[in-house]
User: Fold CopG family transcriptional regulator from Weissella sagaensis.
Amino acid sequence: MAFNPENKQIKQALQKTEQFEPKDKLVIPVFNDADEDERTKNYTFSLQPSVRKRLDALAKEHNFKSASKFLNELIKNM
Assistant:
């Protein structure tokens, strides 16, 4: 069976320009000071120092008061 470029269905499929977003795409949350309706609880977890440094930098870049608030929003919005 050969490829027939004149086939209407094939032409339509090739011409579609729909944009698909990957499911793995990470969306960085926006700081929203008004979103404090749920109480928080302290948890302890371990990170490599280089990861912690990057986490702090990301939180600061996106105007979060702390890395914890940044992580909370990031995970909440997944």
Remarks:
- The chain has three helices and no strands.
